[in-house]
What does this fold into?
Amino acid sequence: MIRIRKLNELFDSPVSYKVISKEMGLDTSTFITGFKVRGVEYEAVLTVYEGKMEIVFWIEDTYTNAYGISNTGNAVFVFSTIRQIVKDFDDMLQQYNTEMYDTGLTRKQFLVDTITFSAKEESRIKLYNTFAQKIIKEFPRFKTYRTYTDSDDNVHFEIY
It folds into this structure.
């Protein structure tokens, strides 16, 4: 029963986060954030280039090993917060796109049509599948997702 409750709560319990850096550019936009869950500090970087938003997050000071952060007991809060960060960054990109379009720019390069992220640990795959499904429900422009495994056994997710 507790497991079902946790899955239902997943992505609905974000913690507050701070914006470390925000760069909105014509080619690339980047949003760097930090947040803390139960004493563990995380960083998340969302980068948008040519319509693709890449999500990468890790425990602070461990970027050299961005994989391997499972079993902290913080998954519900971490993924809730990442979902909120994606939503907030997407809202900023939508606003920025409107402002740029209003100034005469005709390209719509700030609109995200694909979201990507990766997992290495087998235990994370189900969680990441659930995350992808939640993103699709929250953002109607995304219809489906696919996964593929690279030569290093990293599983990549593409929501489009």
In short: Helices lie at 2-9, 75-102, 122-138. Residues 35 and 66 are 16 Å apart (CA to CA). The longest strand covers residues 28-37.
